[in-house]
Amino acid sequence: MTTQRDRIDIQLAGDTPATESAARVEAGVVAKGAGEGKMNLFDLDRASLERFFEETLGEKKFRAHQVMKWIHHRYVTDFAEMTDLGKALRAKLEASAEVRVPQVVFDKASTDGTHKWLLGMDPKNAIETVYIPDKGRGTLCVSSQVGCALNCQFCSTATQGFNRNLSTAEIIGQVWVAARHLGNVPHQQRRLTNVVMMGMGEPLANFDNVVRAMSIMRDDLGYGLANKRVTLSTAGMVPMIDRLALESDVSLAVSLHAPNDELRSELVPLNKKYPIEQLMDACVRYALRKRGTSVTFEYTLMKGVNDQPQHARQLLRLMRQFDNAVQMKDAAKVNLIPFNPFPGTRFERPDDAAIRAFQKLLNEAGMIAPVRRTRGDDIDAACGQLKGQVMDRTRRQAEFQKQLQARGLGNEAA
Ligand code: SAH
């Protein structure tokens, strides 16, 4: 369990005394940008950081590489500590750049090892990030937006509405906070082996920032994750799936949840714009761009809604069509997610027997369909529950404020 002292350390990410930081938060400076006009280096992937060094600072490219290692491998954000950079360069960086870390409002550990952070991005917006350790892997579930505009009926983020996109810095900042807490050392001590863009928000609706952040996740000078180990999950923004195929190379997951348009349009309103046939075609194009690519289809099981044998059969048909179009067996992977309830929802989780029966129908037809175990539900960190704490905006704001107050960092503006 992280102590209060640790949390403050994470938040400050350096030697700034608490009082000074408090004053800066009070003035709304930290959250808005400790140095207005300064470039936040968390916003830059390797290509843009190299450009910044060459064009803005008049320095060699390899200096950018050194700085990336300091930030993402050693968690150093204070230029003064970057000892292999000359004094003059450190001063130049100090004047024009900063590495601004998200504020850890609080973090919680589950009894099963799952860990959740509430990160304040500005005085009015906080998001959640969840770490899920499992045999031989550690997966971080990262948010892409504050809230979400898609209004999927069974997802608690939807009830919160949409506030804004997260910047590249705010997305990679989540990875930085978790990796630092875990003592992750890329290429050596890997505590963080996978990232799933399955937190709050629709990542394809915040395309550029998400793609840039995913590039830092996969960069050897960043977190060194293999392409396959970074997964983007979408509710089905068809044109953006095609753009993703052109501009990035990551694993694709699609939130299907229903095997026919009538039901899917009800559960995932985006389906009215991009119905299942168009969505599946986009997935086929994505898979065909590179041999051996599979696509994961997420299917949240809701009692009496989409958990009946006819739904399993329709789902099977869709998955077979996909395999045929891609000409690869098991190109379509199904992930069954038992519905996680949240206050005010009209949906329920099917009982275990119904979940097993649904799975068995798929298995008997030769389809592997793991049921995703519920993790971290004692800290409201399970799929779609992430927002349990934040669903009620007033409660979330109150909690955020309480945490700040407790450390003497209260802010009238929030
Ligand atoms: N907008 C993206 C990213 C969110 S991913 C997407 O839709 O894919 C979050 C995953 O958890 C999605 O598959 C989502 O449909 C699922 N989910 C949302 N609410 C849930 C709930 N209450 N119980 C179980 N799964 C849920």
Automatic annotation (TrEMBL):
Name of one Pfam family that matches: Radical_SAM
Domain of life of the source: Bacteria
Family annotation (Gene3D superfamilies): 1.10.150.530, Aldolase class I
Cellular component aspect of the GO annotation: cytoplasm
Binding-site residues for [4Fe-4S] cluster, renumbered to this chain: C148, C152, C155
Catalyzed reactions: adenosine(37) in tRNA + 2 reduced [2Fe-2S]-[ferredoxin] + 2 S-adenosyl-L-methionine = 2-methyladenosine(37) in tRNA + 5'-deoxyadenosine + L-methionine + 2 oxidized [2Fe-2S]-[ferredoxin] + S-adenosyl-L-homocysteine; adenosine(2503) in 23S rRNA + 2 reduced [2Fe-2S]-[ferredoxin] + 2 S-adenosyl-L-methionine = 2-methyladenosine(2503) in 23S rRNA + 5'-deoxyadenosine + L-methionine + 2 oxidized [2Fe-2S]-[ferredoxin] + S-adenosyl-L-homocysteine
SUPFAM superfamilies: Radical SAM enzymes (SSF102114)
A GO MF label: metal ion binding
Protein name according to UniProt: Dual-specificity RNA methyltransferase RlmN
